[in-house]
């Protein structure tokens, strides 16, 4: 059976309410039937040295999304060769589930950087993009050939990022409004980011 699948990749270090909210907006767009959240082991475009262990990020992701309909967490990128180029993941999925249609989903900040992704033209040949608005970001400088393959989804932006959460924890500030309660429990259990 064919389905329209949104692929939502990230490092999720940690997953936060901004991710949950953007995921809901992708599903509500009615452009996709399911959202597959792809936990990336080694993103090629992030240079910061620090990264929480894959299994702990996975545990947080599962706890964050456990009650979301039509969302599944996928570890495919951990099984494919590293670094995790998105085009490799998309081609692998198309080969193994050829009846599905894929959309690559991202926040608007990622769209502004998309032209710097390795093989971005190949990604655009393989699938279209679904993009949700993010505060402080604009797409006025994004290349026309990218915009031609982009659908913008309605989204009420939330000004939250993983880096801001890591900084807040290190500074001893509360993250209660930014992160789901079950994820906070994992952060505390594993003593992350302090
Ligand atoms: P960091 O602060 O470490 O860069 P992040 O908060 O951007 O992390 P990622 O795991 O890198 O989180 O993001 C995965 C995807 O989620 C990306 O496509 C990113 O654009 C999107 N995203 C993250 N936070 C938001 C947000 N608040 N609103 C919209 N999109 C978001």
Q: Can you give me a brief rundown of this structure?
A:
The protein is α/β, with parallel strands linked by helices. It has helices at 17-28, 54-65, 76-79, 86-96, 108-113, 120-126, 144-147, 162-170, 181-190; strands spanning 4-10, 34-39, 71-74, 101-107, 128-132, 150-153.
Q: Major sheet: size, sense and barrel closure?
A: 6 strands, parallel
What is the CATH architecture descriptor? 3-Layer(aba) Sandwich
Percentage of residues in strands: 15-25%
Strands, count: 6
Q: What are the segments in which pLDDT stays under 50 over at least 5 consecutive residues?
A: none
CATH C-level name: Alpha Beta
Number of domains: 1
Work out the helicity level. Answer: 25-40%
Number of helices: 9
C-alpha end-to-end distance: 46 Å
User: Numbering strands along the chain, what is their spatial order in the largest sheet?
Assistant: 3-2-1-4-5-6
Shape descriptor reads: globular
Bound molecules: adenosine-5'-triphosphate
- The radius of gyration computed from the alpha-carbon positions, rounded to a whole number of angstroms, is 16 Å
The overall pLDDT average reads 93
CATH superfamily: HUPs
Q: Structural class of the secondary elements?
A: alpha/beta
Order of helices and strands: EHEHEHHEHHEHEHH
Task: Walk me through this protein's architecture.
It is a single chain. This protein is an alpha/beta fold and 194 residues long. The chain has a single domain, classed as HUPs (Rossmann fold, 3-Layer(aba) Sandwich), CATH 3.40.50.620. 39% of the residues lie in helices and 17% in strands. The protein contains nine helices and six strands; from the N terminus they run E-H-E-H-E-H-H-E-H-H-E-H-E-H-H. The chain has helices at 17-28, 54-65, 76-79, 86-96, 108-113, 120-126, 144-147, 162-170, 181-190; strands at 4-10, 34-39, 71-74, 101-107, 128-132, 150-153. Strands 3-2-1-4-5-6 form a six-stranded parallel β-sheet, sandwiched between helices. Helix 2 (54-65) packs antiparallel against helix 9 (181-190) and helix 4 packs parallel to helix 6. The mean pLDDT is 93.
